[in-house]
Amino acid sequence: xxxPDATTPSTxxxxxxxxxxLLGRPNAGKSTLMNRFVGQHxxxxxxxxxTTWQRVTGILTVGDAQLVFLDTPGLLxxxxxxxxxxxxxxxxxxxxxxxxxxVVDVAQRPRARDTGRLEHALADARAPVHVAxxxxxxxxxxxxxxxxxxxxxxxxxxxxxxxxxxxTGVQALLDALVTELPRGPFLYPEDDVAxxxxxxxxxxxxxxTVFEQYTQEVPYSVFCRVEEFRESExxxxxxxxxxxxxxxxxxxxxxxxxxxIRDLGQAARAKIEHFLGRRVYLDLWVKSSKSWxxxxxxxxxxxxxxxxxxxxxxA
Length: 315
Ligand SMILES: Nc1nc2c(ncn2[C@@H]2O[C@H](COP(=O)(O)OP(=O)(O)O)[C@@H](O)[C@H]2O)c(=O)[nH]1
Ligand SMILES: [Mg+2]
Fold this sequence. Notes:
Elements: E1 16-24, H1 30-38, E2 56-62, E3 65-71, H2 81-96, E4 99-105, H3 112-122, E5 129-134, H4 141-154, E6 158-161, H5 170-180, H6 198-213, E7 223-230, E8 236-244, H7 247-254, H8 259-276, E9 280-288, H9 296-301, H10 311-314
Parallel strand pairs: 1-3, 1-4, 4-5, 5-6, 8-9
Antiparallel strand pairs: 2-3, 7-8
Bound molecules: guanosine-5'-diphosphate and magnesium ion.
The site of guanosine-5'-diphosphate has 21 residues, from α1.
């Protein structure tokens, strides 16, 4: 290859850049994998399914390549309006992809219900597909072989064995993804890791902590929003409204003598301080917003986009 001289710049950029959309069933490890790629805890991770509600962007610039990862909510059966918005966000990110990265939990055996969902989504993919067999640290060879057989049967794309948790295979996967990126100028400054505002991450860290500290359906009824962010104060003052769907859940969140909300505040504050690298005063206000998961206007205010024509319901 010849080096273009300084006076006549080449019209073909030397850099590669593009969107890598992570797609898969709930709990497959999509968010863990994206965090591993970018080396930061950007997308919330919990042991429970359906915790990523909106898409989260993670940016990685290595050498001449910039990968813009889109972490998405899982491909699920959308029953309520929030789930329809979640599925809509996943399908929208699929359409923006330059490369699709299908993430599969191979600690579980393939079941028709799961593979059917994945096949349905892949039928819509216009970009090249790579498959990450994730959780190989837990998988046995018979299960892996069953998944490989499925991938061959549908001609799914190039497959990679990884563990997002331990990091095994992740570098090789990354190298393979880079080769798929189209040539073009970087979409973001080289040092950027995220595109969402800091407030988004703060609210998500509170929500992640809710998943860790409360059981059953409660975390699925909670949405968090930063209402105030006073940068000039030390410690930094942050007020977060924690919305629940019913007044009875408000009592659960606060707990007897306010113990539960105090524990939530302490644990969330520690995460936010780690994320921001400075001292924080976290002020949590619990509020009730009746059945917000089913309320189109309310979801809109909270930043969700519920598909009008319901592409999500048909999917
Ligand atoms: N053992 C193991 N657990 C994993 C791996 N990747 C993710 N997990 C766990 O699987 C659960 C779901 O992960 P998450 O990233 O939230 O999945 P998502 O719903 O696809 O975004 C969490 O408890 C993770 O710690 C992996 O490679 N190995
Ligand atoms: Mg997730």
